[in-house]
Amino acid sequence: MFEHTGMAGPLLPLEGQQSAPRGPGETEVCCFSCGAVVLAAKFSIQHTSVQWDAAAVRQCAEFGRRVAAGEQTPLIERCEAMRASIEAAALNGRLPVAPP
Does residue 44 lie in a domain region? Predict the structure, then answer.
């Protein structure tokens, strides 16, 4: 269920699985485009960890458009609107850069 910069996009949890509890440095970030909420942690300017749960994947407008066009969710690398929301949160101090 994690999207790491440069890796394949979010996977839906297996049936019966729950999303992982919030870890150190993780902050909720809301997409300014569709309102989906993910947990994000920023370990450096280049390294961002994003945890998507099933509700966020379903709410994501970009994933919805791309799935409707025939793409498979696990092969979608990222949502650009969420990425921009996470970067804005980091720049305005709501998402601190916390080295592991």
Answer: yes
